[in-house]
What does this fold into?
Amino acid sequence: MSGTGTPTVAWELLDGGVKGVAKKFSQDRGRALVTAGGRAVVLAVADGHGSRAHFRSEMGARWAVETFTSCAQVYAREAVRRGEDAANLPRLLAEARTLPQQVVHAWRRRVLIQEANSPAHGGNTTASTTPSTASSGTAGSAAGTVPEPDPAVYGSTLIGVVLTERLLVCWQLGDGDIVLVDEDGTTRMPLHTGPDMGDETESLCESEAWRKARLHWQPLTGGGPPPGVLISTDGLSKSFADHEGFLAFASGVRSGAASHGVAAVQAQLADWLGHAAKYSGDDATLAGAFPAIGRGPARPGPDNDDTH
It folds into this structure.
């Protein structure tokens, strides 16, 4: 399968984010784009931890989205090229399982470059070729006290999705939410693990963080359209009184897009997220994609360019 024909499914995208009430700036980042010649979508959201120990986490969240997007576009092109043949699915699954390690290594390289140029804890530090684990930044050396690169300063969660006509793959490290929404409004959360337990969460800054990433792998072979996908940082779901209210919101986003168009929903998204942020007090960021059957490629422009 070459994946070079005319797409039969177009993708309509949502993306937006707001900062939490009383926060100086948002620690979240998000992105939604069409890739692989219009045949695939890549979604990503990241939530920098934002506490005093993670005082550069907005940078970590930005790098999380950038590194995931870069790696996921390569994977998306392969999923489109090979995904029509069921014999290729085991190999695509194996590659999906290795993608978190690629992302973590790329993210840590960004940390090391930043630390080499502007150490978070002051002083001068030399970037090594091996990513460092989180440290207190007080290690000594024969030449004096030289801070070690401290990934914890940049700590962030990450949720990412690749969606094609034939395949849905979701990855999650840390908190946040993935909701799949069918045409009839039915919702499901493939990687939901239950209520949050306090503020502790998995993070990109942990040693071998890729081992804690969760994977949802779903070949789309039922003959119907792919599901809509919404991903969001936890500031959105925390604004609802209960889990059912959050799922009703997700279903309403899909029905609103069907009734009034995705552009109309996008125009209201900042207001909806701002309302949520008033209740949760946290940053709220959402990215989503809905299939639009038979409308041709979505969003012409730079985001469809596979070269970046």
Notes: The helical segments are 57-82, 89-117, 234-237, 243-260, 262-280. Residues 89-117 form the longest helix (29 residues). Residues 124-144, 296-308 have pLDDT under 50 and may be disordered.
